[in-house]
Amino acid sequence: MNLTRLTSAALAACACALLMASPATAATTTSTATATPHAVPGSMAAAFGTVLPQSASPATIGDIYPAKWRNIPQDSVVDDWNMYNRECVSWAAFNIDRHGESASNYGDAKYWDDNARQHGYQVDNNPTPGAIAQTDRGTYGHVAIVDSASGNTVTVEDYNWDGTGHYLRHNVNKGDFRYIHFYG
């Protein structure tokens, strides 16, 4: 997603969501896998189609994204990896860091596969739990964390799939992504 510019629509959506949710509701909303019935234009959900929530598996990470980045408006701060908060790249970089690896300064998601290759990481078409699903599709691309794979269906966990800056666990088509293996 765009790491350099905020739109008034994005700011309005974030402000509206914060104003309408109590702190308890906001925590529930960001920590559960909910899909929006209508995707924000330009979002990955609009590009790939909206999705339904998926039940958890043993590999599910859950929304463990730090509150200092999760509980403030999207794109309002830069995280420890030089990514804007509540974007797919921030979520992925945070999870990679938890495993002792780094995707710091990897930029927009569409560049992650090339940057990973340059740093010696394996990039292929094989989704495995913990791998980063990456696509160049859309203006800025998208990254997510692979939870599980079965046939042509890959269950991923990500932020900002629907353009609202929230966590979501959902299915994607295996062939729509490349898979970066930072660890494991």
Automatic annotation (TrEMBL):
**Gene3D superfamilies xrefs:** endopeptidase domain like (from Nostoc punctiforme) (3.90.1720.10)
What sequence ranges are listed for the domain Peptidase C51?
63-181
Q: Which InterPro entries match?
A: CHAP_dom, Papain-like_cys_pep_sf
Q: Which residues form a coiled coil?
A: none
Protein's UniProt keywords contain Acyltransferase: no
Signal sequence residues = 1-26
Superkingdom of origin organism? Bacteria
Q: Which UniProt keywords apply?
A: Signal
> Which Pfam families does the record cross-reference, listed alphabetically?
CHAP (PF05257)
Q: Does the keyword RNA-binding apply?
A: no
User: Could you tell me which SUPFAM superfamilies the record lists for this protein?
Assistant: Cysteine proteinases
Q: What is this protein called?
A: Peptidase C51 domain-containing protein
